[in-house]
Design brief:
heterodimer, A: alpha+beta, 4 domains, six-stranded mixed beta barrel, 27 helices, B: alpha+beta, Arc Repressor Mutant, subunit A, three-stranded antiparallel sheet, 4 helices, 58% helix, disordered N terminus
Amino acid sequence: MSALSRLRSWWRAQRDRGRLDRQLREELEFHVDCCAEDLMRAGLSPDAARQRARAAFGNMPATGEDVRAALGLRLGDEIRGDLRYALRMLRRSPGFTMVAICSLGLGIGANTAIFSLVDTVVLKPLPVERPDRLFFIDSSGGRSGQSGPPYPAFEIMRERNRHFSGLAAVSASGFRVTIDGTTEPIRGAHASGQFFDVLRLTASHGRLFTPDDDARIGAGGRDGAVAVISDALWRRRFGADLAVLGKTIEVDTRPVTIIGILPPRFHGLQAGYRFDLILPFVLTSNDLREKESWWFQVIGRLREEATADQAQAELDAVWQAYLNDNRVGAGTRKGFPNIVLTSARRGLNQLRRDFAEPLWIVMAIVGVVLAIGCANVANLLVARASARDREIALRRAIGAGTGRLLRQMLVEGLLLSGLGAAVGLGLAVTGVQILIALFAGAHRAVLLEPAFDMRLLGFTAAVAVLTGLLFSLAPALHALRGGQAALAQGGRGSQIPTRLHAGQALVALQVTLSIVLLFGAALFVRTLINLKSVDAGFTAAGVTTITVDAVLPPAVPPDRPDQFAEERADIGRMWQELADRIGALPGVESAAVAALTPFSGAVRGVRLVIVGPSEQADSGIRLNQVTPAYFDAFRMRIAKGRPFRPEDRGGSARVVILNQSAARHHFGESNPIGRHVRLPKPGESGDAEVIGIVADARYESLRVAPSRMAYVPLAQAFDRIGRATIVIRSALEMTALVPAIRREVRERISGGLVGTIASVSHEVDEALLRERLVSLLATVFGALALILACIGLYGVLSYSVVRRTREIGIRVAVGARPAGVVWLVLRETVLVVACGVAVGVPVALWMARFVEGQLFAVRSRDPLAITGALLSLILVAALAGLIPARRASRIDPIHALRCE
Amino acid sequence: MPKPADLLQGTLDMLILKAVSLGPLHGYGVLLRIRQISKQRLEIQQGSLYPALYRLEHQGLLAGAWGESENKRRARYYSLTQAGRRSLQEQTRNWNRMGEIIAGVLGTAPDEV
């Protein structure tokens, strides 16, 4: 039969309830009138006829009900009734309603807020067509998951593969963009010609660039250098004016024409880093001809008929041939053994890698908080259900079925959780803003843009329904078990019934969960404190770093290795002069230039050979190239020997300083000073003498033990250094110094361009973002859990005191002391808390194993943390227990007994 | 509720469809028509008539529309839809077949087994 017609008539009836009722009434009246007329015609008096007609028809309201049931409206009617009733019940006890809605609101809000982050950072696929067909080409054999091959290999793969509809290289880049005379940093990427085709993106205005625009290295294509901008940049910077198409802007001093605007839904390939400006790959400043350089990602769209295995095998064959053809060394081949395809469904994984685990931990924490909130509401509902025993028994007695009663309970529960969810959504909107601010606080900001979309609303709705079902369960069970007895007892059960045990069990469960959260919070806080007190090996406070890019003279041809050292010495001299000039500025304590600095995110690996009979080689050592004042500026301690001096110049004897780890690794307890090492390089001759040992410094993160490191003077640099970092220690505000520094850079460095200016202590802090986030959230939610659990405890005890008023009255009347009465109540507290603790401590210790990876210098069974958790719990629980206990001790026996 | 209601309900629907198939009727008219064509042998519970009418309309077998009655009053007239006509034919066929089978079963003599 036609489902459509049913739906239509059902919907019509739903929409206009009055219409149906009016229509039916009119029809029935007409029916009865006709019947009466017929009866009159048969000879009855009008009155008698009407009476007979009505009687013959039977129960009119019941007919109406039957009609509604026939149309499938009955259920809706009943639920509507339930809802009205539930609302009335909630209005009648505003205190209960407030506590319940707030508990749920906090719990659901926290879950929604954290889920929005989890969704944005971890779960959400790229907003493009069929993201599951997108793959990264990883040349590191699956180790990193996303290291694309060197550019020449990529070009071969693009030509030869048959299983992808397109392959595109992409590399996130920061640009310095000059628009109408003002310069600002803008984030974006370089992407090769097929990028937009691979992602199946089309321009919302203008056009997106194609392989034609990505044809000539360093130049672009037919239309010269072009660029595509994001919808967000277009709106923010150009006021959504279409005149921007064809406009020329300057990107890193190169004029570039804007040709198109990306669709608004596309933000880039990773959460927190928006591609506002995308340039063709050929415009990158990196050398695309380098055959052993890994620095970008390759993303491809698999053809519908191809499988990932086929495509992987095909590309791997290309890769192996490339490695052989270019005689790539064994060491490198070990790092990049074969091609593996990894899913690009969710884009780049940088943020995911760092934050997935902490976010899941926090998600679990807020889940537990919600469970505690639920237990609270369940407890309150059970207490109320006992008070409603009489009502429920009455409803049963007049014929309400079990299903009908359960539905009433369920409607009440869902109404509560629905209201809680509404409050929670409101809280989540604010909460998410705070969380985003935590992420975006640093200059290397993570700009998350979680949307309150259908996914999120769906999640909240699911959580609300689930919690509603969960906490309706307790009172529903109660109603099923009890109920009948109440009416027989006249509805005033004054005994302490078994159901109180259910309440106690719920509170004990809350205590258990609270302990788990408090213990976790303590572990994370300890981790943060430990990390903050780690000796980084340098003093960050007061140090500022400024990156500077130089335009270097053309490189010496590869067939003249004899000129390499001289060339690098010239470059080193240029940087040295800059350091000297800045060091001479008033207010600057010391200034140096270095190839890299701690917490800048960059590392340089090198191969170092210990000169001696065994010629021991070290490929796991790091290299830094610095001017003499570097150690002074960072307050890195020279443990042995001497620091670099201005005399360690290009032409003079080669020198090297090792850090303590490197010295210990290679020379053990013997004195390394005066020993020789070599950094092998074509055209390089002569060993370097170890002249000093410097204390270890942590370059990557506070968590990671310092690597072995060798320092060489910048004047004897190993690399052609085109980008360096100025390190300045000064008590002055940087704003006062920056203009002078810019001037020096302009004068001393050819094509010098000042880049990022960063305070090192800020960078170190920023590196702790993850730990700060987790420990802060764990503490906040641990406290919230504790408060909720204690509200639950307080509620159960208060209720028990009220129920035992008569008993306590009698006890006092026969001579119980107030202290005895207090103990009577406190005993219950102790019992409940002890049960919770007995289960909670082992559970907490067991659970802690799962977060071990996030801890630092704390064991997962840290006694201090568990003690702290227990103490705070017992303190707050005692407080919650004492108030009802004192109230009990003040019960006036006469009053109590008269009450009954 | 007594169980045989199901069976009754099925027949009631069929009778209503048949009555309406002879021409559009209002609710009271359906009652009279069934009484008439059954030669007064069938009496329909008035209370169950309207739920059945609404159900059939809900199912798309009947179409209801306001019209004017013989006594110049506003009345709701029901007529058969295409789906209703098909359903009536099918129900009639089923009923007849079932009737034959049952009659055959009940008419079986001992020596026929």
